[in-house]
């Protein structure tokens, strides 16, 4: 009797649509089983301790960097990005694994707090404990770097992990699991499950102790709604519409170079990629001329040919096209490229200027190699327009003297002054957004603590003659508390 074939799906090379791999579609019951195994492995992974976890993670990071060509090749094949970009992604991901491994113990160290006057006889401590099993759901645009920003920190904190990679990059997810299991001290510490949105939904419903999601705002809403039903907490890393503010005192040459790279690298498919520029009108013409000059030197193409690759997700091409069209219909001008730059699966660079703020192209995430450059009369206007977005992920500020002042007024999770993207590569700082860009943080101590819970432990060191937490409390004790509260202006606690 023929055995029934398990349902599967294909991963495609976006350059030519060739099938590059076939992966199982994990069902709800299979996802629950994987989570049950991860839960069974969790106590041992916790007990093994910081040093053993650190050694495991450092061994994993060495293995990854030693096989950088293998994993970079899979990344490039599944996303279409150039090999050099894929290699850079691997290197940055490895540095995050190293940071999480080396700092987990310190970040989770028990902290001692002041008990206050009223509780002066108590010691007050806060311990940090791993949550248990973390479900990680990843996107395709940085299929290694992005999920590793959750996986490595969750593992270092003592959790086991079940990871659902994007259906566009399952090969990267499977490679990640296989490489970990080559050095893992035992099974089920880190498991990859493959599938479409339904498999991600099953992970949300599986009873994991937290979901760390990276992807679009639309899916984040579905994930958060589903997790609410089981009180599963979530970290949500979503889309952005990152602004670039260019002051009159900026180094325009550097600002243009970094902004065009930020907007166009990875075919514009970066959550923290520059999408809109607010440039002081005094230097706007120079900025635009240089931006056009630079755009004319780069082009999209297959790995080995283009400066950046195709749109990885075929459906994104229509969104990019509609944003270019709406920018023009709303009164914007194409100064480089235009609707004809969209030659699926590739999109050649497009530079648009003076696009009204109400345009969809200014308001919504384009996720393509398009940059909108709008003139402003003051930095105050630039800040107001930057903050007017429903997104609040990252921002870039270019100014020789006002960088910090401008940065401190931006409503977003990360700002790079006279730079771009750098915060993503600095493992010690948190990464994440506000508003529709999400909540919670990955990376750094804040990112690591996301995968822990605080356990407050207070202990009587000695007994006071006055016992406030007792039915034996006397009227004179109440009077004393009120008197002390008045005297110390509420600083009793
Ligand atoms: P997406 O939302 O389409 O998919 C993300 C993941 O969610 C995939 O693994 C997908 O299979 C899964 N999924 C889909 N439906 C689901 C459901 N109902 N329940 C659970 N999981 C489900 O996003 P994408 O297209 O893969 O990624 C691009 C988006 O990610 C962009 O908006 C980009 O800005 C954002 N992004 C954000 C960050 C960040 O750190 N803030 C980083 C990278 C990408």
TrEMBL record:
Gene Ontology molecular function: any one: oxidoreductase activity, acting on the aldehyde or oxo group of donors, NAD or NADP as acceptor
UniProt KW keywords: Oxidoreductase
PROSITE patterns: ALDEHYDE_DEHYDR_GLU (PS00687)
Keyword Acyltransferase set for record: no
GO BP: any one term: aldehyde metabolic process
Residues in Aldehyde dehydrogenase domain copies: 7-457
Family from the record: Belongs to the aldehyde dehydrogenase family.
Protein name per UniProt: Unannotated protein
Species this protein is from: freshwater metagenome
UniProt lineage: unclassified sequences, metagenomes, ecological metagenomes
């Amino acid at each position: 009797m023929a055995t029934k074939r398990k349902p599967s799906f294909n991963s495609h090379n976006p350059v030519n649509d060739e099938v590059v791999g076939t992966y199982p579609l994990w069902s709800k019951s299979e996802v629950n089983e994987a989570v049950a195994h991860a839960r069974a492995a969790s106590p041992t992974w916790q007990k093994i301790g910081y040093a053993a976890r650190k050694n495991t993670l450092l061994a994993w990071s060495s293995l990854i960097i030693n096989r950088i060509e293998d994993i970079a090749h899979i990344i490039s094949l599944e996303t279409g990005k150039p090999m050099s970009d894929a290699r850079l992604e691997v290197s940055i991901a490895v540095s995050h694994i190293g940071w999480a491994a080396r700092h987990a113990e310190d970040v989770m160290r028990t902290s001692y707090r002041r008990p206050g006057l009223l509780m002066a006889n108590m010691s007050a401590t806060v311990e940090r404990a791993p949550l248990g099993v973390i479900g990680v759901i990843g996107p395709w645009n940085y299929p290694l770097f992005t999920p590793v920003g959750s996986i490595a920190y969750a593992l270092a904190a003592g959790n086991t992990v079940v990871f659902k990679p994007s259906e566009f990059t399952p090969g990267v997810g499977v490679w990640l699991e296989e490489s970990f299991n080559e050095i893992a001290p035992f099974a089920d510490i880190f498991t990859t499950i493959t599938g479409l949105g339904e498999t991600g939904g099953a992970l949300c419903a599986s009873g994991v102790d937290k979901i760390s999601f990276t992807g679009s705002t639309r899916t984040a809403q579905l994930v958060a709604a589903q997790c609410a039903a089981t009180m599963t907490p979530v970290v949500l890393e979503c889309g952005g519409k990152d602004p670039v503010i260019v002051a009159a005192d900026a180094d325009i040459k550097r600002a243009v170079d970094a902004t065009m790279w930020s907007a166009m690298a990875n075919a514009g498919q970066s959550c923290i990629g520059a999408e809109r520029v607010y440039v002081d009108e005094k230097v706007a013409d120079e900025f635009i001329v240089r931006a056009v000059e630079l755009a004319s030197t780069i082009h999209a193409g297959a790995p080995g040919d283009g400066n950046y690759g195709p749109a990885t997700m075929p459906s994104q091409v229509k969104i990019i096209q509609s944003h270019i069209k709406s920018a023009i219909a709303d009164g914007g001008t194409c100064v480089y490229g235009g609707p004809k730059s969209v030659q699926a699966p590739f999109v050649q660079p497009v530079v648009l200027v003076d696009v009204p703020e109400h345009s969809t192209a200014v308001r919504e995430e384009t996720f393509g190699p398009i940059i909108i450059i709008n003139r402003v009369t003051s930095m105050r206007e630039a800040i107001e327009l930057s903050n007017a977005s429903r997104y609040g992920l990252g921002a870039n500020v270019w100014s020789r003297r006002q960088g910090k002042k401008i940065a401190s007024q931006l409503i977003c999770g990360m700002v790079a002054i006279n730079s771009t993207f750098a915060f993503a590569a600095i493992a010690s700082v948190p990464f994440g957004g506000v508003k529709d860009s999400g909540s919670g943080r990955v990376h750094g101590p804040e990112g690591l603590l996301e995968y822990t819970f605080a356990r407050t432990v207070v202990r009587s060191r000695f007994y006071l003659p006055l016992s406030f937490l007792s039915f034996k409390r006397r009227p004179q004790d109440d009077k004393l508390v009120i008197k002390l509260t008045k005297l110390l202006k509420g600083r009793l606690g």
